Amino acid sequence: MTTTELREAILAHLKYALGTDPDRASVTDWRIALSYAIRDRIVDPWFASTQAAEAAKGKRVYYLSMEFLIGRLLEDAVVNLGLMESASAAMSSLGLDLDTVLSDEPDAALGNGGLGRLAACFLESLATVGCPAYGYGIRYEHGLFRQSFVDGRQVESPEDWLRQPHAWEFERPGAAFEIGFGGRVASNAGRTEWTPAESVVAEAYDTPVIGWKGRWANTLRLWSAKPTTFFDLDRFNRGDYYGAAEPEALARTISRVLYPDDTTEEGKRLRLKQEYFFTAASLNDILRRFLSEHDDLRQLPRKVAIQLNDTHPAIAGPELVRLLHDVHGMPLDEAIVTARGCLSYTNHTLLPEALERWSEGLMGSLLPRHLSLIERIDAAHAAAHPDRGITMRENGEVKMGELAFCMAHKVNGVSALHTELMKRTVFSELHRLHPERILNQTNGVTPRRWVLSANPRLSGLLTDAIGEEWVDDLERLHEIEPLAEDAGFREDYAAAKRANKEELASYLRAERGVSVDPEAMFDVQIKRIHEYKRQHLNILEAIALWQEIGDNPNGDWTPRVKIFGGKAAPGYVFAKEIIHLINSVAQVINSDPVTSKFLKIDYPANYNVSLAERLIPASDLSEQISTAGKEASGTGNMKFALNGALTIGTLDGANVEIRELVGAENFFLFGMDADEVMARRAIDGHAARAIEADPRLARALDAIRDGAFSPGERGRFDAIVSNLSQADYFLVSSDFTDYWRAQREVDVAYRDRTAWMRMAILNTARSGWFSSDRTIRSYMSQIWNAQGLLADAGT
Ligand code: 26V
């Protein structure tokens, strides 16, 4: 598409779709007009792909996920269609800067963190490799809350991404299913029938997902909850206006808001409703599509692969059995085997508090038929394994991990270590019974978003050096390995990083009034705030460093800027304390005239995908410092390594694999490994001992205790201090000394810029394996038995 054609298309949409003209149009109007013009280019490949999949009558993959953390869509589409230059030229011919227009788009924040972002990377890779697939989820009216800081404390407010027209979706009033809740179960002529007490309508909204070079496009289908009847006219006519609107309000509540990753009591019922709502709608849709092409439901596993992204859609097991058995009359045993043939389950966490359990009381009242099927499935499993010492129900609760495991033919972890720990801990008993079921699929990230778009300077350099093929064949990055020894390439690589850092520095100055020196090391920790991720270990090290610099202000210190980003679940009090501490420490340290040329701390509020795209390319050091055994994989760690940030990290999740691939000499390792963690925890008073043994740690904790960061409010952070001195379940104190040691090694290494750049280049060169294209191909061959159809789309 030429610049002129694109320009004409934009002007036409501005006029005919938005009803405005160039003199009056706002940036948002222009952005939407551009989005429509780009969307038009997606529709043909999208139709071609859908038709190719229909013609092939092959297997389709269905990725069921409560979360899709997509971020902005326009840039993705422009990049994947190869229209960056035309779009930029068209926009400037209209007097606009493309970057300004692209950044006007609100993030689609339909996810909490790693799990949701992984789903978004997978969608893009599924389209890139040409695998016929659908993402299924919920069209939340409000995504993840907005975070702001008031006096250093996190304050949440509702996010409102749909306030502006959403240019990427197509509403499908014709694709709608009624979803029931509650009611009674009765037997009728040998068949079991469930008569729900209430129901809502799930209506589909489709977003095309275009792969690299526009060769293939899939569909993300998100369900929105609508009432079965709009309003109660009788009540309205009686003047009861609120009452009349009640059915609509109740129904719409289901897709109103994304659950923040927490474990509050209230809202449990609504969460279970959300889970069943989107799972049931998706399965109905999948069966409808199957039956439009085939007639023998026993063939379902040959044509349908359903991936459960964590246990959130685990009710899919009993629901599919119900549809096959109760609705379509398949014998129960066969229905269970058929459902299992279609389903597979990904586990994303071993944290006991994050493993879903639903009380049988709640489940029985919302989903009575499903509860009785779970009992049947459990009994069938127990009968097949008489020596089995466990069941999927315990203390009046249904364990969703066990249910998902028993109803899946494959169960996967998301990094090598995590998968080993799944076998050894949470699923040890089930693993013994089904040793072939668990397998590893190490996570990956899409290089189109996380290198090509986010880091155009590095991308240009890579393409100049080895051609463009790396973009969808990321292991080609190995070809730049020899260039680590090429002084000219190292200089170019350093210049690209430097320019990214300058850009970030001006952003921080403009947006936050913070001034940082691009010459300093940019040390970044961005992720949800959680004790196991140990942001408090990072801030303790900052305090100790600040004290040491203060003792010797004329020392030869390596200047650092520590940047934090991340949200705490609204109900997670301790995580919010950590945020407050970081902000309070930042305030004191940044205003210290003696130390601030060596150490600054910044914590921009409302960390999201778009901010990650700014921060990662400008980072020198990637903080991956979780307690070993707790971070299932991490995916930020991969994005940093690809963009040439060196990792300081523990042997946890995919850090282990990153270190193996980039080389131990290009990775700053510290801390206990997972086995040592378990052993240390068993030692009485481990925290007190660690503090006693390290005067730096003791002094940093004393400063917090004495109110150095809470002037006039001594004891403000006692919850943190006493946790770290006593229970310290996540072993912050015990790992501090080694973390400090590794950080000082980082300081020394950063001073030798040549050596540092060599290490950074090797990180980029050797991280190509972490492309989500590799992960998706592996799921296709090892779990889904699905084929890519790129050639069939006529490309
Ligand atoms: C739990 C809950 C609990 C109730 C309310 C809502 C909610 C939402 C999400 C979760 C589970 C989060 C699990 C998760 O995000 N795991 C992360 O998955 C990433 C992708 O596999 C992985 O890289 C991270 O290490 C892992 O923490």
TrEMBL record:
Family annotation (InterPro entries): Glycg_phsphrylas, Glyco_trans_35, Pyridoxal_P_attach_site
Cofactor: pyridoxal 5'-phosphate
Coiled-coil regions listed in the entry: none
Protein keywords: Allosteric enzyme, Carbohydrate metabolism, Cytoplasm, Glycosyltransferase, Pyridoxal phosphate, Transferase
Family recorded in the similarity comment: Belongs to the glycogen phosphorylase family.
Modified positions (N6-(pyridoxal phosphate)lysine) in chain numbering: 639
UniProt GO molecular function: glycogen phosphorylase activity; pyridoxal phosphate binding
Species of origin: Profundibacterium mesophilum KAUST100406-0324
EC code: 2.4.1.1
Gene3D superfamilies: Glycogen Phosphorylase B
Record's subcellular location: Cytoplasm
Protein name, per record: Alpha-1,4 glucan phosphorylase
GO CC annotations, alphabetized: cytoplasm
Name of the gene: glgP
Record-linked NCBIfam families: P_ylase
The organism's taxonomic lineage, starting at the top: Bacteria, Pseudomonadati, Pseudomonadota, Alphaproteobacteria, Rhodobacterales
Catalyzed reaction equations: [(1->4)-alpha-D-glucosyl](n) + phosphate = [(1->4)-alpha-D-glucosyl](n-1) + alpha-D-glucose 1-phosphate
BP GO annotations: glycogen catabolic process
PROSITE patterns from the UniProt entry: PHOSPHORYLASE
General function of this protein: Phosphorylase is an important allosteric enzyme in carbohydrate metabolism. Enzymes from different sources differ in their regulatory mechanisms and in their natural substrates. However, all known phosphorylases share catalytic and structural properties.
